[in-house]
Amino acid sequence: PTADETLRAEDADHWIELDLPSTQQTRDAIEFAFPNRLYDTDPEACASRAILCPTNEAVDRFNRQIIDDMKGDKDVHYAHNRPLKDGSTDDLPLDESEVDQEDEYMATQDELPKPPHQLDLKPGALCIVLRNLSKRYGLCNNEKVIYVGSRGPNLVEVRKIHPDPKYPTF
User: Fold this and answer.
1) 65-105 pLDDT, tens per residue?
2) Is residue 38 part of a domain?
3) Which Pfam families match (predicted)?
4) Quick one: pLDDT at residue 155?
5) Which end of the chain has fewer CB within 10 Å, C or N?
């Protein structure tokens, strides 16, 4: 390669041919990245592996397949999208009769950056914290955690990949 990292025909003597596996099948890619259902036996080991996807839709497809394949019962968590009063800065929803209709409508919307309305998880699922929840406990953006289980309709328990002995789960 030249300094601008383009390959030229005259450099062919120095080329290295790589025989990298490729697939168009979701299941084959999952088996390659997580052999022998690694996500069921060693979720911590999964934290150092990844499948690179070109779109969020592809990420969702892989995540759904892995969650469906995992052992255990699925916990389903729903977002509660509540529109606020016009010009308001408080958390009071609109008239309750309008809220149910708005929830149904907002659940069908799948636009970025709004996350999906439904989150399906099974104990042992690897997750990533997407916002700074607690600097004190190290639950910050991009921290990898393992889902332990549901602790109510609006609360989940997770454990850090490398936990502090004083705070093993949250």
Assistant:
1) 999 999 999 999 887 655 545 544 444 444 455 555 565 66
2) no
3) Pif1_2B_dom
4) 85
5) N
- Rounded to an integer, what distance in angstroms lies between the CA atom of residue 158 and that of residue 167? 11
Task: Name the residue range of residue 100's domain.
Answer: 80-114
Q: How far is CA 16 from CA 13, 44, 69, in A?
A: 9, 34, 37
3-class DSSP state for residue 145? strand
Structural domain total, the chain:
1
Q: Which residues contact 89 (CB under 8 A, 6 or more apart)?
A: none
User: Does 154 map to a domain?
Assistant: no
Mapped onto helix, strand or coil, the DSSP state of residue 119 is strand
147 found inside a domain = no
What global pTM score does this model have? 0.68
Tell me if 46 sits within 8 A of 124, measured CB to CB: no
Burial letters 142-152, b for 16+ CB under 10 A, else e: ebbbbbbeeee
